[in-house]
From TrEMBL:
Identification of the protein by name: LARG1 glucuronyltransferase
Pfam families: Glyco_transf_49, Glyco_transf_8
Organism of this sequence: Formicarius rufipectus
Database matches in Gene3D superfamilies: Spore Coat Polysaccharide Biosynthesis Protein SpsA, Chain A
Gene Ontology biological process terms, A to Z: protein O-linked glycosylation via mannose
Reactions catalysed according to its record: 3-O-{beta-D-GlcA-(1->[3)-alpha-D-Xyl-(1->3)-beta-D-GlcA-(1->](n)-4)-beta-D-Xyl-(1->4)-Rib-ol-P-Rib-ol-P-3-beta-D-GalNAc-(1->3)-beta-D-GlcNAc-(1->4)-O-6-P-alpha-D-Man}-L-Thr-[protein] + UDP-alpha-D-xylose = 3-O-{(1->[3)-alpha-D-Xyl-(1->3)-beta-D-GlcA-(1->](n+1)-4)-beta-D-Xyl-(1->4)-Rib-ol-P-Rib-ol-P-3-beta-D-GalNAc-(1->3)-beta-D-GlcNAc-(1->4)-O-6-P-alpha-D-Man}-L-Thr-[protein] + UDP + H(+); 3-O-[beta-D-GlcA-(1->3)-beta-D-Xyl-(1->4)-Rib-ol-P-Rib-ol-P-3-beta-D-GalNAc-(1->3)-beta-D-GlcNAc-(1->4)-(O-6-P-alpha-D-Man)]-Thr-[protein] + UDP-alpha-D-xylose = 3-O-[alpha-D-Xyl-(1->3)-beta-D-GlcA-(1->4)-beta-D-Xyl-(1->4)-Rib-ol-P-Rib-ol-P-3-beta-D-GalNAc-(1->3)-beta-D-GlcNAc-(1->4)-(O-6-P-alpha-D-Man)]-Thr-[protein] + UDP + H(+); 3-O-{(1->[3)-alpha-D-Xyl-(1->3)-beta-D-GlcA-(1->](n)-4)-beta-D-Xyl-(1->4)-Rib-ol-P-Rib-ol-P-3-beta-D-GalNAc-(1->3)-beta-D-GlcNAc-(1->4)-O-6-P-alpha-D-Man}-L-Thr-[protein] + UDP-alpha-D-glucuronate = 3-O-{beta-D-GlcA-(1->[3)-alpha-D-Xyl-(1->3)-beta-D-GlcA-(1->](n)-4)-beta-D-Xyl-(1->4)-Rib-ol-P-Rib-ol-P-3-beta-D-GalNAc-(1->3)-beta-D-GlcNAc-(1->4)-O-6-P-alpha-D-Man}-L-Thr-[protein] + UDP + H(+)
Membrane topology: Single-pass type II membrane protein
Gene name in the database record: Large1
Pathway it works in: Protein modification; protein glycosylation
Length: 753
């Protein structure tokens, strides 16, 4: 609407100038005085009307004005010609002129001068997008890194949006797993997500050689007319490296400006790539002038289908590939080749809808003020390290959304009905059944809290061993235990599954830490799963369940982040799995736990060395001085001399670290923070008749650290301890109902302990 209003104002002003300037000028020259019949004086010397000086001066004035009138008439003729040209043009020609902030003209300087006035006055501001109209957005996404980029893009869109959104994600299997879980746990109102299998589309574009770093997925925007639902009429297509600085509804409104056969909305390319002058013998694909950038596309799908878009782009690509051999900029080269042959297809968007921050672009000509920015496109392989005069501002804007708390974007759109979400309804029902006056309400509520979860935050690549003996180490941590990661990776060479409890900002700190670590970057068999912070408790058992759920091996070692496994434990456990026939029996293999109070420890290389350190007082059995019951049933006295595995019985408060099959029961989510989180799990294993077997040549050592916030609350807050006791009793009652008579021993053991 803003562009239309500005165009009308220009046309009106020009017309008024053409009509009235000559009339006013001639009236000014020849109007006389009606009182005494004298002409109106044009000179300050009217007190001497009959003097020779007055006559000469008057003659000079008249001649000067006649010259000026002729100049005005020439200007008017030029203005009429410009107006007739503007009205006669149905589409833009070669857009190789200097960038302008508006469509339909190359007169960039005059338009830039009117930017501020145009932004502040929008001649009535008729809304082009209805309040609850759904805006459709398509994004091609593949792999781990692109999935992270999509989250930042979506955050920037959600932050500004006031309309329901429907995201169409063309994703590979990896991205689908990550993003499906993320959006399911994000639970943003008035947002719908549909996935389309990118791997099924590969055959549509695999015949096109592509040198661009986006690979085969960089060509998939060409087949959207075929991929997206046939009843979808229009869609905004975005690259993953886009950041929005305004409401996406403003861009959606531009569809109303399309005329005739215009079906593609694009911003002109802001580099010299398609001009072919970047280096000697540079030969780009054909393009109209500077060409167009496809980081932001408005597609009129219904019209494109009627025009046989599939046939159009395929024929063009086949013809050009005969001489070009491959694409350099993926789908963008083919889009531009089609537009070169059919310029009537394109509607040129103002360049602030795609401010391109690759090196050597003219992006600075797209804006004069922050308020002019609409969409920022990090279309350089260097991304945030790109060279630009205002890159610090753009980088800070990007980092704002990168680290923004995504939970705050769960905003309702008032007045717009949302689709029924069964998960959300069930959650609300469960929460409504809780008593808010209950002193343990917050503990109970945490059990039902849905935490936003981003699986595989970093690249993960691992194929389990073919002999079905592989074991994954499972653990959870928060930001204050990050320093343990490198040490664990050095001690355990097998796969690891970690759940990290972080805020959005901490997730980015972790990313920078990991990317700066040679040890962590050299390991592709570590799955990092981010569970975003929400609520006042550390959801320890939810984190364990997330890490357990996303392992690819048949067995898992349930550990804690503060423990370092002995060197070689991974291979030892794989042998033990075979020896003890874990595949066909319900066993939980216990790895005995020890601890040191020293921050610097010469880690024992063997059981004999460990026993020596126990005797010298350098090491201790785990928690022997504060929580003996937790590991006493392991029978450390027997372990000292044992050479074969031995069975032990469950006892109250037993909480060993065990190796189990991946199908073992989950941890109970009612236990949060400190206390009884592992105890309850071991109790459930015993109730399901797992056999506890101690491994004679395995061990792990707990490293010292500052007390956690949750253990501090447990020690200092009486109500915390009361609520934990209440939850324990309720858990035992649930066990009795579920396992019947066999569970009575847990009540008896608790009463006797």
């Amino acid at each position: 609407m803003l562009g239309i209003c500005r165009g009308r104002r220009k046309f009106l002003a020009a017309s008024l100038t053409v009509l009235f300037v000559p009339a006013i000028t001639w009236i000014y020259l020849f109007a006389g005085s009606f009182e005494d019949g004298k002409p109106v004086s044009l000179s300050p010397l009217e007190s001497q009307p009959h003097s020779p000086r007055y006559a000469a001066s008057s003659q000079r004035e008249r001649e000067s004005l006649e010259v000026r009138v002729r100049e005005v008439e020439e200007e008017n003729r030029a203005l009429r010609k410009q107006l007739s040209l503007a009205q006669g043009h149905g589409h833009r020609g070669n857009h190789s002129k200097t960038y302008s902030m508006e469509e339909g003209t190359g007169d960039s300087e005059s338009l830039r001068a009117g930017i501020v006035a145009g932004n502040s006055s929008e001649c009535g501001q008729q809304p082009a997008v209805e309040k609850c109209e759904t805006i459709h957005v398509a994004i091609v996404c593949a792999g781990y890194n692109a999935s992270r980029d999509v989250v930042t893009l979506v955050k920037s869109v959600l932050f500004h949006r006031r309309n329901p959104l429907h995201f169409h994600l063309i994703a590979d299997a990896i991205a689908k797993q990550i993003l499906a879980t993320l959006f399911q746990t994000w639970m943003v109102p008035a947002v719908r997500i549909d996935f389309y299998d990118a791997d099924e589309l590969k055959s549509e574009v695999s015949w096109i050689p592509n040198k661009h770093y986006s690979g085969i997925y960089g060509l998939m925007k060409l087949v959207l007319t075929k991929t997206l639902p046939s009843n979808l009429e229009r869609v905004i297509v975005l690259d993953t490296d886009i950041t929005f600085a305004t409401d996406i509804a403003e861009l959606w409104a531009v569809f109303h400006k399309f005329k005739g056969q215009q079906v593609l909305g694009l911003v002109e390319n802001q580099s010299d790539w398609y001009l072919g002058n970047l280096w000697k013998n540079h030969r780009p694909w054909p393009a109209l002038g500077r060409g167009y950038n496809t980081g932001v596309i408005l597609l009129l799908l219904d019209k494109l289908r009627k025009m046989k878009w599939e046939q159009m782009w395929r024929l063009t690509a086949e013809r050009e590939l005969m001489s070009m051999l491959s694409t350099s900029l993926a789908d963008q080269d083919i889009f531009n080749a089609v537009i070169k042959q059919n310029p009537f297809l394109v509607y040129q968007l103002p360049c602030f809808w795609n401010v391109q921050l690759s090196d050597h672009t003219r992006s600075e000509q797209c804006y004069r003020d922050v308020s002019d920015l609409k969409v920022i496109h990090w279309n350089s392989p260097k991304k945030l390290r790109v060279k630009n005069k205002h890159v610090e501002f753009f980088r800070n804007l990007y980092l704002t959304f990168l680290e923004y708390d995504g939970n705050l974007l769960r905003r309702e759109l008032f007045g717009c009905p949302s689709e029924t979400d069964i998960n959300s309804e069930n959650l609300q029902k469960q929460l409504s059944e809780l008593d808010e006056d209950d002193l343990c309400y917050e503990f109970r509520r945490e059990r039902f809290t849905v935490h936003r979860t981003h699986l595989y935050f970093l690249h993960y690549e691992y194929e389990p061993a073919s002999d079905n003996t592989d074991v994954t180490l499972v653990a959870q941590l928060s930001m204050d235990r990050l320093q343990m990661l490198e040490a664990i990776c050095k001690h355990w060479e097998g796969p690891i599954s970690l759940a990290l409890y972080l805020s959005d900002a901490e997730a980015q700190q972790f990313l920078r830490y990991a990317q700066g670590s040679e040890v962590l970057m050299s390991r592709h068999n570590v799955g990092y799963h981010i569970v975003y912070k929400e609520g006042q408790f550390y959801p320890v058992n939810l984190l364990r369940n997330v890490a357990m759920k996303h392992i690819s091996t048949p067995y898992m070692f349930l550990s804690d982040i503060d423990f370092l496994p002995m060197y070689g434990l991974y291979e030892y456990l794989r042998k033990s799995v075979i020896q003890l026939d874990l595949a066909n029996t319900k066993k939980a293999l216990i790895v005995p736990a020890f601890e040191t109070l020293r921050y610097r420890l010469s880690f024992p290389k063997s059981k004999a060395e460990l026993l020596s350190m126990l005797d010298m007082g350098t090491l201790f059995t785990f928690r022997y001085h504060v929580w003996t019951k937790g590991h006493a049933p392991t029978n450390f006295a027997k372990w000292r001399t044992a050479t074969t595995p031995y069975r032990v019985e469950w006892e109250a408060d037993f909480e060993p670290y065990v190796v189990v099959r991946k199908d073992c029961p989950e941890y109970d989510r009612r236990f949060v923070g400190f206390g009884w989180n592992k105890v309850a799990h071991i109790m459930e294993l015993d109730a399901q008749e797992y056999e506890f077997t101690v491994l004679p040549n395995a061990y792990m050592i707990h490293m010292p650290h500052a007390p956690s916030f949750d253990i501090t609350k447990f020690r200092s807050n009486k109500q915390y301890r009361i609520c934990l006791k209440t939850l324990k009793e309720e858990f035992q009652q649930d066990m009795s109902r579920h396992y019947g008579f066999a569970a009575l021993k847990y009540l008896t053991a608790e009463n006797n302990s």
